[in-house]
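Subject: design request, 125 residues
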């Protein structure tokens, strides 16, 4: 990239959408929900177990994440499964977690070969 080139300013409506995405990421439960969905889809009850919150609370967070287009539902019979909306959301969540890992001491888990959580290759849409 040329050092003299500047990115074009964002349109106000686009800025609003970006701010809404960051607002959704500003809640610990929603971050835990998104992280749990990085490599799989889960039902509300499974997500509640993963994040240690009651299912009604997780359901409310999922509704907000759906409105922000960060997760999408899939119905199978009477069960609704949730997954991340797209690869961009997945990458945003992974990058945010990896960035936070750099704030701690030592080698961040994502740089270690013995990392507990291995991320799978991105799933094609």
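Subject: RE: design request

Done. Sequence follows.
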């Amino acid at each position: 990239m040329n050092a003299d080139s500047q990115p074009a300013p964002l349109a106000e409506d686009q800025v609003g959408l970006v701010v809404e995405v960051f607002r959704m990421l500003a809640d610990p439960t929603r971050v835990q929900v998104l992280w749990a969905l990085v490599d799989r889809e889960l039902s509300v009850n499974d997500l509640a177990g993963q994040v240690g919150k009651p299912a009604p609370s997780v359901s409310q967070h999922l509704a907000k994440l759906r409105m922000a287009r960060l997760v999408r539902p899939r119905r199978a019979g009477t069960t609704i499964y949730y997954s991340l909306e797209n690869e961009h959301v997945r990458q945003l969540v992974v990058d945010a977690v990896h960035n936070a890992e750099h704030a701690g001491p030592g080698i961040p888990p994502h740089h270690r070969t013995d990392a507990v959580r291995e991320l799978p290759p991105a799933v094609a849409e």
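Strands lie at 42-43, 71-76, 79-84.
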